[in-house]
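Methods: holo model generation. Sequences were used as deposited, without trimming of termini or removal of tags, and paired with ligand SMILES retrieved from the corresponding compound records. Each pair was processed once, and we did not select among multiple samples. The sequence and flavin-adenine dinucleotide SMILES for this entry were:
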Amino acid sequence: MRLPCPYCGVRDAHEFSYLGDAAPRRPDPAAPDAADAFHDYVYLRDNPAGAIRELWYHGAGCRRWIVVDRDTRTHAIAGATFASGSASGDAS
Amino acid sequence: MRSRYSVFSLLANALTGQKGWTPAWRDAAPKPAYDVIVVGGGGHGLATAYYLAKEHGIRNVAVLEKGHIGSGNAGRNTTIIRSNYLLPGNEPFYEWSMKLWEGLEQDVNYNSMVSQRGVLNLYHSDAQRDAYARRGNSMRMAGADSELLDEAGVRAYAPFLNFDDARFPIKGGLLQRRGGTARHDAVVWGYARAADKLGVDIVQNCEVTGFIRENGVVVGVETTRGPIRAGKVGLAVAGSTSRLTRLLDLRLPIESHVLTAFVSEGLKPLVPGVVTFGAGHFYVSQSDKGGLVFGGDIDGYNSYAQRGNLPVVEDVCEAGMALMPQIGRLRVLRSWGGIMDMSMDGSPIIDVGPLPGLYLNCGWNYGGFKATPASGWCFAWTLAKDAPHALNAAYRLDRFRTGHMIDEKGVGAQPNLH
Ligand SMILES: Cc1cc2nc3c(=O)[nH]c(=O)nc-3n(C[C@H](O)[C@H](O)[C@H](O)COP(=O)(O)OP(=O)(O)OC[C@H]3O[C@@H](n4cnc5c(N)ncnc54)[C@H](O)[C@@H]3O)c2cc1C
Ligand SMILES: [Zn+2]
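and the model returned the structure below.
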């Protein structure tokens, strides 16, 4: 599998580390429902069979976090964007 | 009534041209309703149905399988069985499974080729030896067997290993002699035949596509062969669990990942039992046909594709070469993948709920084959009694909420590290 890094171009998946689904967002620890929200954030996943937006780290390249659009059934990749500044992926 | 298999039935059929055998189980058509529906005709689903009928007298049961039975992970794994766990939530469960393996063939009257040829986990450092000593003691406290071997002990057991590797010399190993392998599809067929004999309907080519709910209670399933109602619905679909629970708007602490297994061309007897490398992820045994059966890590990213990618092939073969350099010229005949239900703490879930009428059996990671008998036994108990047995009391779904994770590896909620 090869991933299209927006900075480095198409690179072998070997160069990247995987974090997982980009959808979970860190909840506010001061919110009244924080315990529930953290349970959801840390443990529960959509685990889709199909399109997923997921975080990869280009450790052997530009060292940036990217969000890849991939199909989990076929590994077809629709595109990738930088995680920071994009709507999803709180990779800081 | 189908006959019992015995040396006499073998002889009689040998003398009559093998023409007297009848199908081992009925290819049942679904009835409109059952007391219990088990979704998934892998090892766990079939074992569940068998123990429901045998231990609890619940015989109006159907196992619904979308393809043919054993076409999922049950027929794709590297067939290792063992009870060498550390943590109290796990070890008694896996040791119960080992005890059920030991009596399985007599119990279901089917040759599952359970072979207690030993499982040896190698260690390469003092720290690893201490960790294995602790694990071995924990196994003994749960009634399992374990032996801590020093280097000479390993040399006597498996003299062909690469002992003097400069980076990872072999210093010893933790041996469980009662561990070993079983013939995976014979396990499936044996449970299917035994369950069928007790009245269970095994319905193949019947994919569950939805759930029938009334007032929030799950009262049946929609399938490609029509709606089927049930008093209770148990899910045992391994890597497909999230696909089904999604239909109920449930999110689970599970990710699906692909694991690859490999088999080589046949060799004369070389590997006596199961050997696992302690400095990389690699495990190997030798099949009765002579092929080396081996595997390693998952690919590491979510996948529903039943095939892995090349980096893992390379990684597994490198680890194999580090351990057994003599296999370098051996040809790999085949490799294949299966989709595993990787849970957030690396341990399974066997539980009532989380919706009324629904029961969950999932989160097997890549260790669910060895669990097949105990998983079926405990899930049957949980379905019959509406409460977990003591052996699966730690495998509750709410442990992630309450903080009672069973994290054998201590890596946290990162499924691709388990
Ligand atoms: C390559 C590989 C190697 C492994 N090695 C080992 C090992 O050495 N030792 C070990 O202990 N474990 C091992 N495992 C893990 C083990 O195989 C699994 O944990 C175990 O088989 C899972 O339980 P099962 O047999 O019930 O699953 P499966 O056989 O996957 O059963 C699930 C069934 O559900 C069916 N299904 C799915 N969706 C639906 C639907 N909507 N409707 C109806 N039916 C459906 C599937 O077709 C499938 O037959 C390995 C797994 C793999 C992939
Ligand atoms: Zn890059």
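The mean pLDDT of chain A is 92.
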